[in-house]
Design brief:
The protein is of the alpha/beta class. It contains 9 helices and 8 strands. The two termini are 28 Å apart.
Length: 203
């Protein structure tokens, strides 16, 4: 299991945003998928308690399903961004279908300039086309909160061990990940604060 993307992969795709170097000890907390009836209220409550903001890469069809949760994410001051309409895998999808799916989500957030490919899978031709309209955001730290093989304590340890200034952390905003997130999200954020990190939503 790799927490950080291999350097070779990052080097092969330099136009993707893997991390954001800065001198303020900023890190970027992001949540993929959702809105989720089960996970989103929990996540929003933790973020409110800790007085931090995050970026939510949302799925269009879930926004349609839970419009009030979508509005609450925005009302609470978080950033919303495009994670496609139906979570298509760029490796398994022809470009026209893939782009149409992204634009269908974009119609729900017209001022957005950020896109994260589902599963982190995107081809060179897709990157070439999409980078003219979006910053394509990947990550520096993958929490593995979606894995049934990982226990929450190990997930927390991996995050704290690998996070550094400029890191983009990925958690998931869905029912599948909630079991792993519930015991550790708040205390992980608190520990990152103790280590001097600030949470940014400036892209």
């Amino acid at each position: 299991m790799f927490v950080r993307p291999p350097k070779l992969i990052r080097a092969l795709f330099p136009s993707l945003v893997w991390r954001k170097e800065n001198s303020q000890n900023n890190i970027w907390l992001t949540f993929d998928d959702g809105p989720s009836e089960e996970a989103t209220p929990f996540i929003l409550n933790i973020l409110e308690e800790e007085k931090i903001k995050a970026t939510f890469f949302l799925i269009g069809k879930e926004i349609k399903k839970y419009p009030d949760l979508y509005k609450k994410i925005i009302t609470n001051g978080h950033i919303v961004a495009n994670h496609s309409y139906s979570h298509k895998n760029g490796y398994l999808c022809n470009n026209l279908t893939y782009f149409d799916d992204i634009e269908k989500c974009q119609e729900l957030m017209p001022n957005n300039k950020l896109f994260r490919p589902p599963y982190g899978k995107i081809s060179r031709s897709q990157i070439k086309y999409l980078k003219n309209k979006y910053q394509i955001i990947l990550w520096d730290i993958l929490s593995w909160d979606f894995s049934f093989r990982e226990i929450p304590k190990k997930i927390k340890t991996n995050i704290l061990k690998n996070t550094s200034s400029g890191s983009i952390l990925v958690f998931h905003n869905n029912k599948k990940s909630l079991k792993n997130l519930t015991p550790i999200l708040k205390e992980t954020i608190q520990e990152l604060k103790k280590r001097g990190f600030s949470f940014s939503t400036t892209w």
